[in-house]
Amino acid sequence: MIINKIKNNIILTAFICAAVIISGSLFVNYGMAKSARTNIIAADINQSEPKSYIKWMEFNVRLSTLQKALKYDIDSYKTETPLNWIELISYAAAKNWGNLKEEKKVNKYIDDLVKKLKNGQTIEELTENNQNMRLYPYYYETFYSVLNGFVGEYELVENGGSAKQYGLKVFSPIAKGYGYSHYDDFGNSRSYGYRRRHLGNDLLGSTGTPVVAVEDGYIEALGWNQYGGWRIGIRSHDKRRYYYYAHLRKGHPFAAGLKEGDTVQAGDVIGYLGMTGYSSKENTNNITIPHLHFGLQVIFDEVQKDGINQIWVDVYNIVNLLEKNRMPVVKNAEGTDYVRARDINNIVTD
After folding, report:
1. 25: pLDDT confidence band, cut at 50, 70 and 90?
2. Quick one: DSSP state of residue 232?
3. Structure confidence by residue, pLDDT tens digits, 166-182
4. Domain 189-346 has CATH 2.70.70.10
5. What pTM was estimated for this model as a whole?
């Protein structure tokens, strides 16, 4: 029995060390205080001095877990115990050693955590100096990088009035009222040009369907790409997320006047679904089925943006989560383009 305990401790230690090496993270002390964790997360990712950063992660949070954590967060707004959905998910991930496929088990961990927090315990008390929670800061940083800014206060401007609300302030990439279908095709094989993995989610729809900016940000890329056809790349303001919208419509791919460097708001119409790409000749339809390729790259350091350590995450469950938060659109005054039908003023509280 003693030998087995020693053997188990060795395996546990090896797993934790491997996770630290893979992440390349600075978390030497896994029981760091929240302030220290926040400093690392908020660090300027453009700084030039040598530093460690996460080089690999996967986003395997299931839809039911996202929905449960999100509901707890929204329902606790302005209560005595406000809950943070990223903390809830990160805790459950650390508790179950990263296995988020076991939805019932993971969701129960979230329920149990909420009870403890409502009984007066803090997330720091539950994760610091706890050997079983040593990976909590790693999961928090990775999930924070994917989900930061998705939830918070915003002002809805509609019918000449405005009202402050709290909840999701990001939108589905497909405008409200337009049909689409999709399945989890992340990692599937692609062969055009060279054999590679599919690093996004294909949303199959009708040519001309308005495509919407998921999050506030600025246009980092806009134009033709041999693989993606007419495409747009939008970077979040915190620079952690790069959204990639590809295979836009031939002839009229982008919203009028849009150009690199422009700032966009979540919910803005940025382009139109099509089937361009797979050609070195510009404005060519070589895709057989109209669809939007929607991808999300997570960036912990600028060298990852176009380098060999790129991190693209599976957005399938994010798309499903945003299905009920779609922006309605209307024709502009000239009748040439679609524009958002509602204004949302983002309230930054970080």
Report:
1. very low
2. E
3. 999 999 999 999 999 99
4. yes
5. 0.85
- Per-residue pLDDT at 194 exceeds 90: no
What is the torsion angle, in degrees rounded to the nearest 10, for the CA atoms of residue 181, residue 61, residue 191 and residue 271?
50
Burial (CB < 10 A; 0-12, 13-18, 19+), residue 38, is: middle
Residue 167 dihedral angles phi and psi, to the nearest 5°: 155, -155
Cα→Cα distances 188→157, 184, 197, 245, 286, Å: 41, 9, 5, 18, 19
Q: How far apart are CA 201 and CA 319, in angstroms?
A: 9
C-alpha to C-alpha distance for 301 and 48, rounded to whole angstroms? 10
Domain extents in the chain? 2-147, 189-346
* DSSP string across 30-55: TT--HHHHHHHHTS-TT--S------
Q: Which of 176, 151, 23 is nearest to 75 (CA)?
A: 151
Other CB atoms within a 10 A radius of the CB of residue 93 amount to: 24
344: which 2 tokens?
A: 């949302």
